[in-house]
Amino acid sequence: MLQAIGLTSTPRRDLTSAVDDLTFEARPGSVTALLGASGAGKTTALRLMLELQPGRGITYFRGRPLHRIAHPAREIGVLLGDVPGHPGRTVRGQLRMLGAAAGVPVSRADELLDVVGLQGLRDERLGTLSLGMERRLGLATALLGDPHTLLLDAPSGGLSLRESSWLFGLLSAHAAQGGTVLYTTDDPKEAARTADHVVTIDDGRLVADQDGAAFARTRLRPRVAVRTPHAARLADVLSCEARASRRSVEVVAEAGSRLTVFGSTCPEIGEAAFRHGILVHQLADEFGDTGPGPVPRLAPVPAAVSVPVPGPGSSPGSGSGPGSSFRTVSVPGPARAFTPRQARAEADTTPTEAVTTPHTAPHATPQTAPHATPHVAPDAETHTGPHTELRAEPAPDGLGPLLPPPLSARPARSPLRPVRYELRRMLGVPSTYLIVAAVLVASTVLAVTLAHSGRTSLPGLLSAWPGLLPLPPAALGAGLLGALSFGHEFRYPALADARGTVPRRLGLLLAKSVVTAASALLLTLLAVVADFGVLRLVYGAGAAPVPDNWLALGTGWAGLAVGSAWAGLLAAGVFRAAVAGVAAVIAVPTLVVPLLQVAFSGPSARSMAGLPGRLRELTWLQWPGQVDRWLMVAVRLMAQPVAVALTLSLSVLLGAYLLTGLRRRARWRPRKDRSMPSCPQVP
C-alpha cells in the first residue's frame, strides 16, 4: 500500500504552497487516479512523494519511506514526463544500460521490449521514436526492476485512443496481479473510465477521495450533447428559457456545432428547439464516465452476455437517449466476474474489435487478448513484487505475454554494477566511435606531415604532437571522452532519482574514473601503434625506429592521456556540462603550465639526486638497483610542467566535485531528514 501523509511543498516567496497538507492512499490491486486541473499540484505531489522536491510530509511504500528502501528500482517504477536518453542510443541499449544500473539481468530488457510491443524497434535510435513509442519505452523503464508500485505523471498525455487503451490495459494487468498503480490526469472521463479509485485535488488540497463508481455518480454531472447547425441560436434560447423559469442551466459551446448542456434533459431541449424551429442533428444524454452505468463488483455474468456497444451512429459517451444507437455483442465463455472498470472498458471497445473477457486477459491489448492467459504456477517462487504466483504464458503467435515474468531473486550489491552501467553508456552511442576514429585519423595525418618536414623528434612523431597544439590528439580525445562521460549524464539524465536507479555517488565516480582511464590508455596505444605503422609504411623502417626509452615515453604518454581524461571528467561533473570539461583539458597546457613556469622560473638551488638512497635508508628496505633507476624516471616525469599542472588541476577539481556532488548522502543510505534540496538529476 502507498500512503502519502501531510505532503506540503515549500512555497516560493510571496506564493502559496503548490501542495498543502495532502494525505491519501493507493491500495494494492487497484489503479488510483490523482485527478486535478492543470496547476492543481499533481506533479508536485509526485515529486514530494519521491523526495525530489523540498517540503514536508512523508510517503510510505508498503510501510517503508523511500530513503529506507535498499533497492528503489525494485519497489517503485516511475515515469515523470519523457524518458531522457541520448538520441543516438538504441531502444535496447537504453534499457540494457538502465538495467545494468538497477542490477537486473540483461535478458530483462528483451522481455520488456516484447511486453510493450517494441521488439521490432529494438535497434531504432531514440531520436526517431514517436510519442507513443517513447511512452511505451518509458513504461518499460518503469517496469525494469519488477516494482510493486508504479507512479506515472500524465501517462496518456498526447496519445491516441488506441495507445491510451493499451497503456491502461497494462496498468490494470499490473494492478490485477497485486501491484499498486498511481497516475495523474486532468481528464475526469479518463479517471472514471480507467481507475478503481479517484483522488481529486484542487490548489494542492484534497477535494474528494472516492472509488470509481462513487466518483462517476457524484463528482461528474450528467449532461446532454447537442449537435445543431444553429448552435449559437439554440444556446440563447435555452439560456433565456432557463432564466424565465428560474432554473439552473449551463450551456457550453464546444468545437464546431456542438453544445453541452448541464441541468437540462433531452425532452426539454428537444421541445425548446421544436418551438423555435431550430434543426437538431443529435440529442443524447451523457454521463461522466462515457460508458454504461457501474456494474457491482464481482457480479456474476452468464455464459453468454449481451454487452451494449455504441454503434456507428452514436457519439463516444452517448447514453440511452433518443439520439443514440447501439449494437449488441454476444460474449461467449464461462461465467465471469466483472469490476466496474472492466465493464466500462469492455463497453468502450471499438466496433471492429472483439470484446475481451477477464477470463483471457482483463485489459489485454487487441494483439494479445485471445492468447495471453495467466495461470497459477504451483511451484512459483515467493516474490515481493506484484507477480507473486501468477505467470503469463507466451502467446502462440509470438506476440508475447501481457506482463513480463517476475525477477526470481534480488542480486546482492556488486561494486561492478556502476562499471557495467558506464561501459554500456559509453559504448552505446555513436559519438564514442566517432571520437576514436577522428583521433586516429588526425594522429596519423599529423605524424606523416611532421615526418616530412624532418624537424620533429621521434617522440613527437610517434605521439603526433606538434608545437602548435596544446596536447596531442590522443590526449585531446581522451579528455573529450571524459567530459562526455558526465556531460551526457546531465544533458540526458538516464540516472535520476525519479527512476530509483542512482548508484552510490562515490561508486559512480570511481566507475567513471576507471572506464575513462581504460579508454584513454587504449586510445593512446591505438594512436601510437597507428602512427608507428603509418610512418614505417610511408617513409620506411628508418623513419620510425623503436626508441631505447620506449617504456618511459609510454608511461609519460599514458599519464598525460589519463590525466586529461580525468580533468575532463571532473570538470564536467562540477560544472554539469561537457563544454566545461573540454575547456578544463585545454586550460591545463595553455594557462596552468605557463603560470607554473612563471612561478618557478629561475635556477634551482636544490637537486633531488640521491632520492632513492634516502628512501631506502628511511624505510630500511633493500631493493634492486633497477628500481632506483625507474624511480628516478618517475620523479623526472612528475617534475615536468605538464605533469605538475595536471596534478594540481586534478586536485582542485576533485575537491570541487566532492563539495558540490557528494554533499548529500547517497540514495542507498538512510538519512534522517525527509526532504531533499533541489539538485541536478545526476549525482
Would you write up a description of this structure?
By secondary structure, the chain is of the alpha+beta class. The strands form 6 sheets. It has a 6-stranded mixed β-sheet, sandwiched between helices. The chain has a 4-stranded antiparallel β-sheet with strand order 2-1-4-5, with helices on one face. Strand 4 (55-61) and strand 5 form a beta hairpin. It is elongated and about 110 Å long. 44% of the residues are buried. The model is unreliable at 289-401 and 664-683 (pLDDT under 50).
List the helices and strands and how they pair.
Layout: E1 2-9, E2 22-26, E3 30-35, H1 42-49, E4 55-61, E5 64-65, H2 72-75, E6 76-80, H3 91-102, H4 107-115, H5 131-142, E7 149-153, H6 161-176, E8 180-185, H7 188-194, E9 197-202, E10 205-211, H8 212-219, E11 223-227, H9 231-245, E12 250-253, E13 258-262, H10 266-275, E14 282-286, E15 299-301, E16 305-310, E17 326-331, E18 336-338, H11 340-347, E19 374-376, E20 390-392, H12 417-427, H13 430-453, H14 458-463, H15 473-491, H16 505-539, H17 550-575, H18 578-599, H19 611-619, H20 625-638, H21 641-661
Parallel strand pairs: 3-8, 3-9, 6-7, 7-8
Antiparallel strand pairs: 1-2, 1-4, 4-5, 9-10, 11-13, 11-14, 12-13, 15-18, 16-17, 19-20
